[in-house]
Amino acid sequence: MHMADALLSPSVAIVMYATSMSAIGYAIHKIKEDELTEKKLPIMAVTGALVFAAQMINFTIPGTGSSGHIVGGILLAALIGGYPALLAIASVLIIQCLFFADGGLLALGCNIFNMGVLPCLVAYPLVFKPLRQNGKHLALATILATVVGLQLGAFSVVLETFVSGITELPFATFALLMQPIHLAIGIVEGIVTVAILRFVYQMRPEILISAGQRAALASGVSLKKVIVALTLITILVSGGLSIYASKNPDGLEWAIAKTTGSTELEAQGEAFSVSAALQKSLAVFPDYEIINANEKSIFQSISLPGIIGSVLACTLVGAAGILLAKIKKWKRTVTNE
Amino acid sequence: MADIRSKIEQLYSLEQLSAQNSCVHRLHPLAKICITILYIICVLSFGRYAFCEILPYAFYPLLLIFLAKVPIGMIFKRVIIALPFCLFAGVSNAFLDTAPVMQFGEFFFTFGMLSLFTIILRTLLCVSAVLILVAVTPFNELTDELRRMHLPNIFITLLEMTYRYIGVLAEEAATMFIGYRLRSRTGNGLEMKHMGSFIGQLLLRSFDRAERVYQAMKCRGYALRNFSHAKKNLDKHDWCFILLTGGIFLLLRWTATPYVVGRFF
Question: What are the residue boundaries of the structural domains of chain B, listed by start?
Answer without folding.
Answer: 2-138+231-258, 152-219
